[in-house]
Amino acid sequence: MTETRHSAVETRGPTGTLERHGPIGTQRDKGPGAADGQEAEALLRQARASVDPELRAAIASLPVSMRRIALYHFGWEHADGTPAEGNAGKAIRPALVLASAAALGGTGARAAAVRAAVAVELVHNFSLLHDDVMDRDTTRRHRPTAWTVFGDADAILAGDALQALALRLLAADPHPASAAAVTRLADCVVELCAGQHADTAMERRGPDEVTLEETLAMAEAKTGALLGCACALGGLYAGATEEDVEALDAFGREAGLAFQLIDDVIGIWGDPCRTGKPAGADLAVRKKSLPVVAALTSGTPAAVELAELYGVPYEDDKEELERIALAVERAGGRDWAQAKAADRMARAMHELSRAVPDPEAAGGLLSLAEFVTRRST
Amino acid sequence: MTETRHSAVETRGPTGTLERHGPIGTQRDKGPGAADGQEAEALLRQARASVDPELRAAIASLPVSMRRIALYHFGWEHADGTPAEGNAGKAIRPALVLASAAALGGTGARAAAVRAAVAVELVHNFSLLHDDVMDRDTTRRHRPTAWTVFGDADAILAGDALQALALRLLAADPHPASAAAVTRLADCVVELCAGQHADTAMERRGPDEVTLEETLAMAEAKTGALLGCACALGGLYAGATEEDVEALDAFGREAGLAFQLIDDVIGIWGDPCRTGKPAGADLAVRKKSLPVVAALTSGTPAAVELAELYGVPYEDDKEELERIALAVERAGGRDWAQAKAADRMARAMHELSRAVPDPEAAGGLLSLAEFVTRRST
């Protein structure tokens, strides 16, 4: 759930290929239309169109005080309550639910799974509302975050209400997968909480006090868990076997890890014109992102230099940021992240082929996984 | 959920009768043993004994980071992780779930409803964790609140996890009432959020900007809703009709309102030896409690004096607190609260008699309702 900080990435058009470092997951079989991201963009548009009516109806069912904050957060209202054009995000998670249901159960399962897609989107936004309060992030999807507009208390309460709404929506669904879906989504919420805890706890520690293993575990809980859950819920709504549901969960988790690795690379070397945040933004706040921790724990001379640089707070010194970026690169952090992302995508493809052996049926999920990990570095 | 601020009230022994103002709800038929509170105390002890094993197992299922905060909050661990004797509260809500199930379905239904009782207790504690963060309350059940020990972020996350755990527990229950119970409890969470929002919003406004109607609505959402939901869930687990479930919900809500009215009276005139908080504590923080708002909106000369006094922040002036308490009393706030509490208890009894016509079967719920509203003023 970290990605939306790079908000401009979310709204830009078709992205370029990873020219400088080669494509991620080149060992995969490409599904139809996956190569250029057009299929993924169509799936995202369709997911947004399928989900929005029920999502808006769910928000409309809230008491007026909670509704107002939620409508603002989703970009459907301005702070003064007047209608806004809306930018509720890329709908990656709902698209994964629907593509997963379609892959295993066809259009009927996709239609039945819309409610599950709405629930996943509600949980994602509950976590964004709360994370922004905790992280004191002031911008989300190009707008002031809810807590900066309504205060901490209201942002916390609106998040609480969205979590309840998500689980309620699934519980009230007469679909036979309802109870299993609530259980799975609630488990995912607990994992998201543990991931956010690990993230905030790690950020408080020194550069030499964080292991790569725990950083990966944190990224899996914070980002992988909900992508995995989205895929698993789609499988549940398609009546998939427990084994296939687990494989879909693993597919989403691995793709989520690959995504986070690439997202972290962008946070260091990303082109600000493309990403909407300046190169080195993560370095300026001394974020212990995956490439940084890989570099710090590499045992290289550059790691020692990096630890020294990272131990001192940033003071508007762009040359220093370049020195840090170079140290991360020389310590192997960038290559490691690229290789690891490719590795995770390969694992994701393997899990996908287990759950959905037919490449034609797997095409949608494949193109979505490629889309979220295809980023310019 | 406001009551636990008067934390000493929760742990004191059998309470006295309302000698100075007469008993609340004197028009009711007394169930066996209800008069002296002994039956209620036995029911609370039994509820705690029935609920604790499953509650502890649910907490134990959390990831270690969330578990630690929850164990501290429930009083089962000290801040350093060593075991504590524990004071998880009076278990009023679990006792209402179990008594409600027993009233309509006997011992079998009571046994089946333990999980619902645990879920209600988890939701109650989720709301306490979050409310304490928002209200900056530093003490809960005689101990520093979780956010003062672990920080805001961890208290928010632990609350989030407890909400998820509560709804998950019900959803994973093979009992036929499972889905309806999740739906109802999730709706209650949304109502709790709206109630807490109203409370914080009202506290920010001036003394002449709050109506009695909205104060009552806030109290119903903040306190009545979860007591009502507890009773309703007990009914659902006993296989009660929709009509009876609604009557049980209304019983719990009305009793909850009566409880809040008495609690607010204690917050102004309460004996500090009995309540653990000094008389006038609510007045010192200029709390817009029910008797105060009733006084402020009474149209009496004392109301004008009260508004003037309440508009100025408290500055360690005990005589001023006495003047304010007197103004509330002269404006009729105290009498109104007493009469309204009696009225609400009468309504509660009426709803109870609809759902459980047999006075013998209704005895447990009756004694619990009496217990929570029998307070020394």
Tell me the layout of helices and strands.
Two copies of one chain form a homodimer.
Chain A lengths: L6 H5 L26 H23 L3 H10 L18 H21 L1 H22 L3 E2 L2 E2 L1 H5 L1 H20 L6 H27 L7 H26 L4 H28 L2 H4 L5 H4 L5 H7 L4 H10 L7 H13 L2 H23 L3 H15 L4
Antiparallel strand pairs in A: 1-2
Helix pairs in contact in A: 2-4, 2-5, 2-17, 3-7, 4-5, 4-9, 4-17, 5-7, 5-8, 5-9, 7-8, 8-9, 9-10, 10-16, 10-17, 13-15, 13-16, 14-15, 16-17
* SSE order of chain A, one letter for each helix or strand: HHHHHEEHHHHHHHHHHHH
CATH class of chain A: Mainly Alpha
The CATH architecture of chain A can be given as Orthogonal Bundle
Rg of chain A, Å, rounded: 20 Å
Number of domains of chain A: 1
Question: Which stretches of chain A of 5+ consecutive residues score pLDDT under 50?
Answer: 1-34
Verbal overview:
The structure is a homodimer of 377-residue chains. Chain A has helices spanning 7-11, 38-60, 64-73, 92-112, 114-135, 146-150, 152-171, 178-204, 212-237, 242-269, 272-275, 281-284, 290-296, 301-310, 318-330, 333-355, 359-373, and strands at 139-140, 143-144. Chain A has 377 residues and is mainly α. Chain A has one domain (3-272, 347-373): Farnesyl Diphosphate Synthase. Chain A has a two-stranded antiparallel sheet with strand order 1-2. In chain A, a hairpin with a 2-residue loop joins β1 (139-140) and β2 (143-144). In chain A, α10 (242-269) runs parallel beside α17 (359-373) and α13 (290-296) packs across α16. Chain A is globular and about 60 Å long. The relative contact order of chain A is 0.15. The model of chain A is unreliable at 1-34 (pLDDT under 50). Chains A and B meet through α5, α7 and α8 of A and α5, α7 and α8 of B.
